[in-house]
Specification:
The complex is a heterodimer. By secondary structure, chain A is an all-alpha fold. Chain A has two domains: 104 residues, no CATH class; 123 residues, no CATH class. Chain A is 80% helix and 0% strand. Chain A contains eleven helices and no strands. The termini of chain B are far apart. The N terminus and C terminus of chain B are likely disordered. Chain B folds into two domains: 192 residues, Response regulator (Rossmann fold), CATH 3.40.50; 180 residues, Response regulator (Rossmann fold, 3-Layer(aba) Sandwich), CATH 3.40.50.2300. By secondary structure, chain B is of the alpha/beta class. The chains are: A mainly alpha, B alpha/beta. Chain A: It holds the Pfam family Bestrophin-like. Chain A: This is DUF4239 domain-containing protein. Chain A: Keywords: Membrane, Transmembrane, Transmembrane helix.
Chain lengths: 281, 431
């Protein structure tokens, strides 16, 4: 490996590290973010290789190759387990959030459908409030719940739905659909709370530290493989960087189930609104 | 040497350099302020004009809107509805007002709306009202019945009893609001013990006494009053004479506010209730500073109530929308208003995307002997504005309004000497 113009590699190394941080903190669309993350990681590890090898020369590494392989195998296994654990956790939380949204939307659709068994004024009130709630969830709350929390008006529309049922006179409460409707209302409320909670969930900082440290350690271990051919080592380190970057990207994009392009959308609510019956105003 | 050169150059460059740079101030933005400054309702509308002008002055003190001063064009509606319509037309056509803050009575609003629709102007109407209207040319910053009367009636039903007597001045607002209450009570298990109307401005004790006699004979648990002005005072005094007190037969007013209480002796009314979205006594820093500024400007004895507060909020909402739209164009401002929110003295309010009414809190207060209203209850959240009450179809509400208008001979209140129209449902126990 040639070590002249080492400062070029320093500049490239620091620059790509800074760009990686910028890409991670910027809210880019999924595919450009993935492409940049992988590309910059490959650049970073390739810029870091001559710097590492400048410090520890090949002759020394070839002598200690067996011990290093064993350590790399341990680090690799532990890191793979950690990544698998993180991916399973975020994936489960993502699919739970998806099912919570579906349950909330289904309960709303049921409630609206059951309101047809009540008197026309009740039906009109339920339909008005249900439509308002769904529309606000779709148009306002979905955008804001990740960073600014629940929408006060969506909460108000749900309270209004409750009011329709709690304020009913004794005669209306005798309707056989009353109890089931209140159950559905409870489902909406519970699932809404779960949805809002899920929108705020994050992978714990300690897991992120482990993911980053594990990735860096794995790459550093490959730097010190006693490989004679320069290009072979570059390929090895690049492949590892791609795998680590993709793992981090996967965890990051599933971390917030409602954020970004891969986030869960309000499609379930859109379909409910589309199927709501219009009562004559 | 340099000094000499400077002296030589001065005659050539000096005057040009010293001449003031031509600086054209951008023209002000004209807005209309159309309330009655004279006539029977002037007393109620004066504080609304005051609050509107205060908001405009505050905007100008902060640099105006889009870097331009806001120029209020104050016009007197003279408590006359055709005058309101004519003035609105003049403001939009001749004065090129980009928005008009105005209207108090439903009659004034209903007279002006066709003008705004025809000329595509923007009216900000700051008064709680009966609903049954949603024009794309009006931003309704007052409450609809489901945002003040309906929750208050429910509170009374839960805390006082099931039988209500509905009494009001005989014009469109009380008639429509009482129709909503009647339908609500039928739905939630209350009963209407009776319903009656007195002519607008009725002060004759014998006429009021007759109504009170009917009320006491019906023995309701509570009275819902939509009577305006001095009639309230006579009414409460007559109730007291008949042995009814706020404890035995409380009156829930859906009209009165601190402004009205300030100009009458509030002591006989103390202990009764008011349903509104705003009271001067509300806690919170935004409200306290608003009330302080209002009192500093209009005197310690002045009072703020629901409509002046809504008028103040109207101006701020309009300014916010203009800044957001980057233009004073009606369409652009209307679109910028949809979904807008503002931290107002009554709390955060939101403009509904569909009907251009505000989402606001419902509140119930008790009248104090000093004319203030203390908060008794407040809704858990802001309430969605529903101008057309769900108890009837939209067309049925419009038919009701039309039948009142026709029944009163083409006007929005009972004509002097006119007969009392029958109430809106056959179940009424009133003659």
């Amino acid at each position: 490996m040639k070590y002249h113009r080492l400062w070029h590699h320093w500049v490239l190394f620091v620059g790509s590290a800074a760009a990686l941080i910028a890409v991670k903190s910027a809210e880019l669309p999924t595919w450009p973010a993935c492409f940049l993350l992988v590309g910059l990681s490959v650049l970073l590890v390739n810029a870091g290789l001559p710097l590492a090898r400048y410090c520890v020369r090949n002759l020394f590494l070839e002598r200690n190759s067996a011990a290093q392989n064993a350590v790399f195998a341990v680090i690799g296994t532990v890191y793979a387990t950690l990544v698998a654990f993180a991916v399973v956790v975020v994936w489960e939380s993502y699919s739970d959030a998806e099912s919570t949204v579906a349950q909330e939307a289904n309960a709303l659709a049921d409630l609206e459908r059951m309101s047809r068994g009540f008197s026309v004024p009740v039906r009109r009130q339920v339909q008005e409030a249900a439509r308002t709630y769904a529309t606000l969830v779709i148009k306002v709350e979905w955008q804001r719940m990740n960073d600014r929390g629940p929408d006060p008006r969506a909460h108000a529309a749900l309270t209004e739905l409750w009011t329709v049922y709690t304020d009913m006179g004794p005669k209306l409460k005798e309707n056989p659909l009353y109890e089931t409707s209140v159950e559905r209302l409870n489902e909406i409320d519970d699932n809404r709370r779960l949805r809002l909670l899920a929108s705020q969930t994050e992978v714990p900082a300690v897991v992120w530290v482990m993911l980053y440290c594990g990735g860096v350690l794995s790459v550093v271990m490959v730097y010190f493989f006693g490989v004679r051919r320069d290009w072979v080592q570059r390929i090895l380190v690049s492949v590892l960087a791609v795998i680590v970057a993709l793992s981090v990207f996967l965890v990051a994009s599933l971390e917030k189930p409602f954020a970004g392009d891969s986030g869960i959308g309000p499609d379930a609510f859109v379909s409910v609104v589309a199927n709501m019956q219009n009562l004559e105003l | 040497m340099l000094c000499a050169l400077a002296l030589l150059a001065y005659p050539l460059l000096g005057p040009a350099a010293a001449a003031p740079v031509p600086h054209r101030r951008p023209p002000p933005i004209p807005v209309g302020v159309l309330h009655s400054l004279t006539g029977s309702v002037a007393i109620g509308e004066k504080p609304i004009t005051d609050a509107t002008l205060m908001a405009i002055d505050e905007l100008n003190a902060r640099g105006g809107v889009l870097g331009r001063r806001v120029k209020p064009l104050v016009v007197d509606g003279r408590s006359d509805w055709p005058t309101h319509a004519a003035a609105a037309r003049r403001l939009l056509r001749r004065d090129r007002a980009v928005a008009v803050f105005g209207g108090y009575t439903s009659a004034s609003r209903r007279s002006m709306v066709p003008v705004f629709e025809q000329l595509d102007g923007l009216l900000f109407y700051p008064t709680f009202y009966e609903g049954i209207e949603a024009s794309r040319n009006v931003v309704y910053t007052g409450s609809t019945p489901n945002q003040f009367v309906t929750p208050a009636v429910k509170w009374f039903l839960d805390n006082r009893g099931r039988r209500f007597f509905l009494i009001g001045s005989d014009y469109v607002y009380p008639r429509a609001v009482n129709a909503v209450i009647r339908a609500q009570l039928e739905s939630i298990g209350g009963t209407v013990a009776g319903e009656g109307y007195l002519p607008l401005g009725e002060r004759r004790p014998q006429a009021v006494r007759k109504a009170v006699r009917r009320i006491t004979a019906a023995r309701p648990d509570a009275i819902v009053s939509t009577m305006v002005g001095d009639t309230n005072l006579t009414f409460v005094k007559e109730l007291e004479r008949a042995g009814a007190t706020p404890k035995t037969m409380p009156v829930l007013s859906a009209v009165m506010g601190e402004t009205e209480l300030r100009v009458m002796d509030a002591r006989p009314l103390a202990g009764n209730y008011v349903a509104m979205s705003y009271f001067q006594s509300l806690p919170g820093r935004t409200n306290r500073t608003f009330v302080d500024r209002f009192k500093r400007r209009f005197g310690r004895d002045s009072a703020v109530s629901d409509s002046p507060e809504a008028a103040y909020t109207s101006v701020l909402l309009w300014a916010q929308a203009v800044e957001r739209a980057g233009s004073t164009d009606t369409d652009a401002v209307r679109e910028a208003l949809r979904g807008a929110s503002l931290d107002s003295p009554e709390g955060t309010v939101y403009v509904d995307e569909e009907n251009l009414h505000l989402w606001k809190y419902a509140r119930l207060g008790r009248i104090c002997p000093d004319g203030q209203i203390s908060l008794v209850w407040q809704s858990e959240t802001v309430i969605h504005p529903v101008p057309y009450s769900p108890y009837r179809r939209r067309q049925e509400w419009l038919d009701l309004i039309r039948s009142l208008y026709d029944g009163w001979g083409g006007r929005w209140d009972r004509p002097p000497g006119g007969r009392e129209l029958p109430v809106a449902t056959s179940k009424s126990v009133m003659p």
